[in-house]
Write a structure and sequence with these properties.
flat; 31% helix; 75 residues; alpha+beta
Length: 75
């Protein structure tokens, strides 16, 4: 069973603001200071690039694991 991308978009437009309103009180306050860490790690005997968005307090905001290095994004 598949879901069309336009259906997902409609759900985001309809339910996104309500989810944001309900979850906002539970989120930690942050400032606009953050950085990206890039490292090379081994996952199941295969080397991968790990990118992490890190807040000024040291908390990981987001991460991405990639098989290839994005030279333009890293520069």
């Amino acid at each position: 069973m598949g879901v069309d991308h336009s259906t997902i978009n409609r759900w985001v437009l309809r339910y996104g603001p309500e989810l944001d309103k309900r979850i906002r009180p539970y989120l930690k306050p942050t400032n606009d200071s953050w950085r990206v860490d890039e490292t090379y790690i081994k996952v199941k005997d295969v080397w991968k690039y790990l990118y992490r968005a890190v807040a000024s307090e040291g908390d990981t905001l987001d991460f991405m694991l990639s098989a290839k290095r994005d030279g333009k994004a890293a520069a």
